[in-house]
Amino acid sequence: MTDNANECWRLLFRVTDALREQANIANMDALAVSDITVGQMRVMKAVSTLSNNGETLMLKTLADKVKLTSGAVSLIVDSLVKRDLLERCHSETDRRAVNIRLSEKGQDKVNRYITFFHDESAKFLSGLSEEDQEKFLTFLQQFLQSVS
Predict the structure, then answer these.
(1) What topology does CATH give the domain 36-147?
(2) 0.85 exceeded by the pTM?
(3) Cβ burial 8-29 (10 Å sphere, 16+ → b, else e)
(4) Virtual CA dihedral for 48, 52, 54, 56, nearest 10 degrees?
(5) Of the given ranges (61-65, 71-75, 112-116), which has the lowest mean pLDDT?
(6) Which of 25, 63, 106, 122 could form a disulfide with 102 if both were Cys (CB 3.0 to 4.6 A apart)?
């Protein structure tokens, strides 16, 4: 790996760690985002996005959305159900099918997570000129495309 590639990944991990530390400091109450893994938050955000007005979501649909196997998503869902962040519901049409939805506590945690990262991003971007903001966003989009 080139020196630039090493530095890129080192900086990306440092940014991620710094954001999680700030999340820990900013959210020291019982609904903190700091006690949620990246995978768990991906699942919770996907449930929030895909289900409207408390509707339920099939596990397979969720797994497809977050690009994980049904087994991996099932394990994450199990851990979130135990913490009262997600709820399991049996389908009204097929009693064997189990659907999920965010609990009120889970929706509150997703909202806090989104607000925190929105605010942190806004603070960071406010320190850049409009031109640098556009360049930075372009670089991020290019980077995402290259790793997706």
Answers:
(1) Arc Repressor Mutant, subunit A (1.10.10)
(2) no
(3) eeeeeeeeeeeeeebbeebbee
(4) -80
(5) 112-116
(6) 106
